Amino acid sequence: MSLVSEIDYGTPASRSESTVTLTIDGQQITVPEGTSVMRASREAGIMVPKLCATDMIDAFGSCRLCLVEIEGRAGTPASCTTPVAPGMVVHTQTGRLKDIRRGVMELYISDHPLDCLTCAANGDCELQDMAGAVGLRDVRYGYDGDNHVTARNNGEINLKWMPKDESNPYFTYDPSKCIVCSRCVNACEEVQGTFALTIEGRGFGSRVSAGMHENFIDSECVSCGACVQACPTATLTEKSVISIGQPEHSVVTTCAYCGVGCSFKAEMRGEELVRMVPWKDGQANRGHSCVKGRFAYGYSTHKDRILNPMVREKITDPWREVTWEEAFAHVASEFKRLQYQYGRDSVGGITSSRCTNEETFLVQKLVRAGFGNNNVDTCARVCHSPTGYGLGQAFGTSAGTQNFDSVEQSDVVVIIGANPTDGHPVFASRLKKRLRQGAKLIVIDPRRIDLVRTPHVEASYHLPLKPGTNVAMLTALAHVIVTEGLFDEKFIRERCDWSEFEDWAAFVAEPQHSPEETEKFTGVPADLVRGAARLYAKGGNGAIYYGLGVTEHSQGSTTVMAIANLAMATGNIGRPGVGVNPLRGQNNVQGSCDMGSFPHELTGYRHISDDATRDIFEKLWGVKLDKEPGLRIPNMLDAAVDGTFKGLYIQGEDILQSDPDTKHVAAGLAAMECVVVHDLFLNETANYAHVFLPGSTFLEKDGTFTNAERRINRVRKVMSPRNGYADWEVTQKMAQAMGLAWNYMHPAEIMDEIAATTPTFALVSYNYLEKMGSVQWPCNEKTPLGSPIMHVDGFVRGKGKFIRTEYVATDERTGPRFPLLLTTGRILSQYNVGAQTRRTENVVWHDEDRLEIHPHDAEQRGIRDGDWIKLASRSGDTTLRALITDRVAPGVVYTTFHHPDTQANVITTDYSDWATNCPEYKVTAVQVSPSNGPSQWQIDYDEQSRQSRRIAGKMEAAE
């Protein structure tokens, strides 16, 4: 394999449908109107020298290296900023141009260290390449004055090297090598949208600066890597390249963090990963990245990673390393024993939203075909199961309606219960770019997320509602749309059931649903609600994006249906720029749901009770399937406490840290007789495990992930599994030990089985994905190219369904003992339970969970910023440090859940969504008070955790 090559056309592509024909160096070429002469030349196979131009950003025209001659025009215009014209005749190589370019390069080189042989960018330096391209062989300008390289002192010339900035853990800034091309500055502005970089100084004294003389770590830089990727020299260089050297081959794969599903080139030296570079042809990320996907892959080689299977009789025993064969035999023996002793339904499995579609498919197959029951569930139970139910009821399918490109055509964007800049940062960058172009933004969130107000983006409306009142808020918006006649009657009559609309419209028009009345629940002024409703209904293409702040409520499913009602009522479905779009949390939450991970559904969201659907699988698998739905995760834990559920196989999830009411989860796990954890590290759930099966990272396997836009992306193995097996192989060998005749040789065969049994995946295969790059389901005979936009000509269910959404206050109430409301969320640098990101340098930015509290609430309790505080609810208590901020309203506190020593979920309750059991993480009544140290629960938990991680042999060696 070689490095995957990508052509840099110098300037972005024109989207014009009109074309222009011109002649470049004697070649006639036809390109879209608005194309630059530079890009047209490159499309004709002619490379014009360049330094400041790259097709990720708009043309800047500062380097003066790309000059051309155009017949009939005076001078030598820059090809990057000159658009093509009909009949234009361009010359890119003349004697005059060669002389000018060599002169320009001489000036660059006179102000640049000539340490190429020892430079980290040697072999991957555009300055070096361009010097060769223009034929530069000598520099006439000596080092006889002040510049980046030299300094004059009493007539004596001395070499000087401006100090490097090593503050960022992932890349180095070497100002002596800066050619002031401004590519990094423009990438930070246009691609990332952070505006953290600038050019300071003048002439030879000018250079890139991270803010006002700050180093990178203290600046507004979010370490997305756009500047590093844009830099044509070694000014900004990955520290991994400096230490390892230039890569010699690369493989395109998919990031295993959030649901955006970014494509990357894993650039390698042998089996050592040098760097992850965002792939420009990635249709989800379009060549951009965030700090996690770009840099936070070090967990794959972390010393904490477990590489050998382990077993123990009791959870109080030390772990004992065994062979894979022993581990598989032990699991098979135990699960068979449990089913013989306690019944067929006494065991189950949990699939992973971090693993591939193929691996997830095998786990649910193992449960249904091997265990003989439907006791299978997935982490989507605790995050997006209301999305599946709510959108399924309204539209007929359990997924978002748009691709990410769609946001570029949005005029009004509603963000509700989501924080894209932290949770889905690459999508957020695209959103911010559209907002800077003039789109309007409405934010519905108890907390002032970054998108509400930044120096370059500001929401038209922020509706800071009280946690738990989403349904009241959305119904109030609908009230305005209906009573003011802002609905799209033509769309509704054509695409929905008019009588159902009339019933819903009468419901939302009732006086108690007016913004003035609902203000009593939501706390949001009525005039803001009315203004936001009018903007969404009449502002053009309206798109709604939502996250866990919608689904993780007792009325999560109702809220999703309320969002669908708004979209249908305004006709914002079925075309680019509109839609209802859940922002999925983990990399394969969508895929794990698609693959039949819920106890009541087989792949493609078909109910287990449907005889025809079961018949497809029974014939292929050669078994009789149970037609009764199995247990959900909360039911499994309840049954374990009751003594009827005894064995659980958990692939790639940490339910002790991620699920609500930690004490109840611990009690359920402790009551089981065989808990099998299949993961990379001894996570918190492994404290209660009897078998540990080491997992493999996304770098060590082949497969597919499905992102939040239903995009099926290939995951490609770039190195051998350090534990010996990819995760799909582990599940297969466990199934074989239990007597199942599985014999998959490659994940491609598993995908073929998925396609053969799942109508929405009918044409999906590895060969097809290689050809297409990626596809969005449904991908079948009806839609062979996939479905970027859903519900274009009609809803999957036929007519869109309007559903009444009555607001029912949560049973979790504040009172004298617990007067504050706790809500939770994520932060940019960390991911989910933190098992991966906490084992990288990302801890530099977030090494602990903090409790955000309003200054008024803090003052009342005598709490100062940074103080240790006790956070208590009806379920339990923990301690962490306070962060005093007005980002939260009085009466509301907020924290993240990335660190197990905090265990925020010991606070959350067992209240859940009425339809799906999705936990109500976002509304917990709490009290905050000063603390002198960790809670007794934390002390006990830490000791139990320490004892649980003992490994025989290694324990003795340590002693």
Structural class: alpha/beta
Strand order of the largest sheet: 15-14-27-26-25-16-17
Biggest sheet character: 7 strands, mixed
Q: Could you give the distance between the termini?
A: 46 Å
How many beta-strand elements?
Answer: 36
Strand percentage lies at: 15-25%
Question: Could you tell me the mean pLDDT?
Answer: 92
Rg measurement, Å: 29 Å
Give the fraction of residues assigned to helices.
25-40%
* Overall outline: globular
Number of helices: 30
Low-pLDDT parts are: none
Please provide a written account of the structure:
By secondary structure, the protein is α/β, with parallel strands linked by helices. Helix content is 29%, strand content 17%. It contains 30 helices and 36 strands. The strands form ten sheets. A seven-stranded mixed sheet has the order 15-14-27-26-25-16-17, covered by helices on one side. A six-stranded mixed β-barrel has the order 31-35-32-34-33-36. The chain has a five-stranded parallel sheet with strand order 20-19-18-21-22. Strand 14 and strand 15 (320-321) form a beta hairpin. Helix 10 packs parallel to helix 19 and helix 13 packs antiparallel against helix 16 (515-522). The protein is globular. The mean pLDDT is 92.
